[in-house]
Amino acid sequence: MTLQTLLIPYLARVETALAAWIPESSKQPLRLHAAMRYSALAGGKRIRPCLVYTTGRALGVPLEQLDGPACAVELIHVYSLIHDDLPAMDDDDLRRGKLTCHKEFDEATAVLAGDALQSLAFYVLAHDPHMLVDSKLRLAMVEALALASGSRGMAGGQALDIVAEGQELNLSELENVHIHKTGALIRASVCLATLCKPGLDEAVRTALDHYAKCIGLAFQIQDDILDVEGATEVLGKRQGADQARNKPTYPALLGLAPAKARARDLIDEALTSLQPLATQADELRAIAGT
Question: Where in the chain are the domains?
């Protein structure tokens, strides 16, 4: 079974759940709700919600209890993409093979759509009736996602990335950018799933967090490589955009072959972290192997 086939049920689940949480475009304000649905229901790899589902499954958590956290991390991710694509940030025209939100609608609507999707993520964690955890664990989920999204996580990483444009970073500095910009939300995805399992052994929680940290960096390296080697029609966004903006990337710093080797090393480290879970973590291993 290919990874794509393996993830089909999870992709269908999160798509259905997202469509249920985001107001219909027939409800006021019409244009805002249309923009939210346009961006959030545009498909994509959905790696973050799939990590919620596969981590939860490895721990024996029923899927219906994972829908809320899966939606929450994807809503945060989509909001960040909308804002990243704006002219004030990366100024991109394409996302997931479609016009970006500000091109399809307008800049003001795109800003508001991102804002609304962000707040909806926390509403989902607070209100989803299928998350059978107590208020203390819900609050822990809100805290984890807030930290991963804010100045000490994704938003902070984006700020570091902006400052780094045109600069020469060493490997440690570059990895610090991406531990925050990309890695924080990957780790939050796994963390939210572990919080759906009350009483989880701390050693297992730590092992899963290390797995998430490693694949977060590996995925960013792969994204940097695809910016060099990929094609726009396959990527769903402009190929070579990072090079055009003179952004520090792993291939630019290390060269293509060493960047690929670094990604492989991180994947190997991630797989080693999963040893305590034996075959229960096979789906997580499959995701790491992408």
Answer: 3-288
d(CA 235, CA 226): 8
Q: What is the pLDDT of residues 164-220, one digit of tens each?
A: 988 889 999 999 999 999 999 999 999 999 999 999 999 999 999 999 999 999 999
DSSP state letters, 219-273: HHHHHHHHHHH--HHHHSS-TTHHHHTT---HHHHH-HHHHHHHHHHHHHHHHHH
pTM beyond 0.90, yes or no: yes
Cis bond before residue 251 (omega within 30° of 0): no
Check residue 133 and report its DSSP letter. Answer: -
- The dihedral of CA 172, 173, 174, 175: what is its sign? positive
| Residue 117, C-beta contacts closer than 8 angstroms, at least 6 positions apart | 22, 36, 39, 40, 75, 76, 78, 79, 82
- 183 neighbors 153 (Cβ within 8 angstroms): no
CB–CB of 39/103 below 8 Å?
A: no
- What is 29-80 written as a DSSP string? SHHHHHHHHHHHTS----HHHHHHHHHHHHTT--GGGTHHHHHHHHHHHHHH
The fold of 3-288 is Farnesyl Diphosphate Synthase (1.10.600)
Distance of CA 234 to the CA centre of its chain: 19
Residue 246 has pLDDT above 80, yes or no: no
Structure tokens at 204: 């297992």
Place of tokens 């990335």: 161
157, 188 contact by CB (below 8 A)? no
pLDDT value of position 6: 85
For the packed helices 30-40 and 107-127, what is the interaxial angle rounded to 10 degrees? 70
> Residue 175, Cα to own-chain centre: how many angstroms?
17
